[in-house]
Design a protein that fits this description.
Elements: H1 3-20, H2 26-53, H3 57-76, H4 84-107, H5 111-132, E1 146-147, E2 150-151, H6 154-161
Antiparallel strand pairs: 1-2
Helix pairs in contact: 1-6, 2-3, 2-4, 4-5, 5-6
């Protein structure tokens, strides 16, 4: 068995183990990840508001929101290696912003660019969950395994894991 196929088989085993782990409530994780995205967004808005209106009390609110976000983030990413905590936070922030860009493009009638933004948002969201469930390590993000001639992406793997229809 070549190295690429062995790595793919290892990833499949991790996906199956995560799916079969009854201690994982994926719907709660998805809800919490969206809450974290919104908290990150609130932090950004408080920063810009503080700067635009020159009222430092917004920074105090930002600190309170950040404390809540940090506490909740620990539920999703309890132990980190290297900068995986920050990577996870930025993956969620990127996903949220790309969703908002997609929404604006969709509203303006630019459906093709909206679809591209949505696809990119979901890809970032999928990478977050692949890291969250340790399906892949940060160093493996670019090294996707293959099955036959069909390449699997992180999105494909996470789609199989986070399938809310499989109960």
């Amino acid at each position: 068995m070549n190295e690429e196929k062995a790595k793919f088989e290892e990833i499949l085993k991790k996906v199956e183990a995560a799916k079969n782990n009854h201690g994982v409530d994926l719907t709660t994780d998805e809800d919490l990840s969206i809450a974290l995205m919104n908290l990150i967004s609130i932090e950004e808005h408080l920063f810009f508001t503080a700067e635009k209106v020159k009222k430092p009390e917004y920074f105090d609110l930002l600190s309170e929101v950040r404390a809540v976000r940090t506490r909740l983030m620990k539920k999703m990413i309890p132990q980190t290696e290297g900068e995986s905590w920050c990577i996870s936070k930025h993956l969620l922030a990127t996903s949220m912003r790309l969703i908002e860009v997609g929404n604006k493009l969709q509203t303006s009638g630019n459906k093709a660019d909206a679809k591209e933004a949505y696809d990119s948002a979901y890809e970032m969201y999928s990478i977050f969950f692949a890291l969250r469930f340790k399906i892949m390590e940060v160093c493996d993000v670019k090294d996707m395994a293959k099955k036959g001639d069909e390449a699997w992406t992180l999105k494909d793997i996470v789609d199989k894991l986070v399938n809310c229809c499989d109960e």
